[in-house]
Amino acid sequence: MVQLVKDLGADVLIDYKAQDFENLLKDYDLVLNSQDNKTLQKSINILKPEGQIVSISGPPTPDFAKEIGLPWYLRLIMSLLSFSIRSKAKKRNVKYRFLFMKASGNQLSEITKLIEAGVIKPVVDRVYDFEKANDALTYVESGRAKGKVVIKVR
């Protein structure tokens, strides 16, 4: 696994089972978070002042609610949900942003170009036929996947 990650271009390798990234990394401009709240909280500590954390799994913000046109009471709820992380970010002089993933044909086209140019290197561990979807899920849940697990529909 270490060699795979190096081959993908990683500058720093951290064994999350034995090391805590919060104690090893510092002064980053940007963190992209897709993990749990504990990881989100720790990620703020590795940013330099004026840095930014973008999360697809953290609590949505009032700005996000406004952006998608939610009514005032839902903006208030999102404000309460994200209060803690926004406060911590503000104290550390960094920005927190919630990103909602949505399908976009234009973005997918651009991603395809990047993959074809070799800029993005997707790693596919295993491919399962649709009939074996349960086996695919079992494999993913085992924690042994070294890349994406694909379910082939056709």
Quick overview:
The protein is an alpha/beta fold and 154 residues long.
Write a concise keyword list for the protein shown above.
3-stranded parallel sheet, globular, alpha/beta, 2 domains, 154 residues, 7 helices, two-stranded parallel sheet, 42% helix, Rossmann fold
Ranges where pLDDT stays below 50 over 5 or more residues in a row are none
Q: What would you call the shape?
A: globular
CATH class of the largest domain: Alpha Beta
Structural class by sheet pairing and helices: alpha/beta
Query: How does the major sheet shape up?
Result: 3 strands, parallel
Q: And the CATH topology of the largest domain? A: Rossmann fold
Organism: Pedobacter rhizosphaerae
InterPro entries: NAD(P)-bd_dom_sf (IPR036291), YIM1/Zinc_Alcohol_DH_Fams (IPR050700)
Pfam families: ADH_zinc_N_2
Protein name: Zinc-binding dehydrogenase
Describe what this molecule looks like in 3D.
42% of the residues lie in helices and 19% in strands. It has 154 residues and is of the alpha/beta class. It folds into two domains: 2-98, NAD(P)-binding Rossmann-like Domain (Rossmann fold, 3-Layer(aba) Sandwich), CATH 3.40.50; 105-152, no CATH class. The protein has a three-stranded parallel β-sheet with strand order 1-2-3. The protein has a two-stranded parallel sheet with strand order 4-5. Strand 1, helix 3 (37-44) and strand 2 form a beta-alpha-beta unit. The model has no long low-confidence stretch (mean pLDDT 93).
